[in-house]
Amino acid sequence: MQKTLKALNQLDKQNPDLLEIRFDLLKDTSLIAKIRRATNKPIIATNRRKGEGGFFSGKEETRLQSLVQAAQAGFDYVDVELNTKNVSKFIDHLEKDGAKTIVSHHDHTTTPELPALESILKREKNAGADVHKIVTTAKSYEDNLRCLLFLNKHSKRTKLVCFAMGRLGIPSRILAPIYGAYFTFASSGLGRETAAGQMPINSLRTFYEESGIS
């Protein structure tokens, strides 16, 4: 736990806009409230199961309960996968406990065509979360453009996060906020990525500053 709090303190000093705590990477989730009190930054609670590209392999009831604990402990956002059983009811539960919700869909194989992305977004809207997240996998540089065009079309009316994972998807991660993404993700440093293609936060910030992007 001390190692987790130390890492959180070091990341806090890099002044991110918000933090994501991956419960599936924590050995002990019993001290969730201490994690929340360790920073004043907005925090996202995520517990990604193996089938969604994460590391959690326990019972689904245990995974979901950890997210409820996060909401009750004051985490600002809780990430809920779109294919979670009774996803709308679970989102309602979390919001009654005081958290905003992010409904997410991850495609670890490809970047779907625009009609498929539209269909996923419609399902996410029906789930009733505050923020909608669609993450794909880039197989070509053209996949970046597809994600960015999709963002440009929908981000004015929807709090939307969309980019492509993988080395080929790095441009979409960088440019997503310019096209209206609610936020994008960066790693706390080299070798600390939680998904393929993440840039270190300092590198991403330097790019924005040198490009005149606020």
Explain what this protein looks like in three dimensions.
- By secondary structure, the protein is α/β, with parallel strands linked by helices.
- The protein has two domains: 1-106, Aldolase class I (TIM Barrel, Alpha-Beta Barrel); 107-214, Aldolase class I (TIM Barrel), CATH 3.20.20.
- It contains eight helices and six strands.
- The chain has helices at residues 2-12, 32-37, 60-73, 87-96, 114-127, 142-154, 170-175, 201-210; strands at residues 19-22, 43-46, 77-81, 100-106, 131-137, 160-165.
- Strands 1-2-3-4-5-6 form a six-stranded parallel β-sheet.
- α2 (32-37) links the parallel β1 and β2.
Main attributes of the structure:
alpha/beta, TIM Barrel, 8 helices, 214 residues, 6 strands
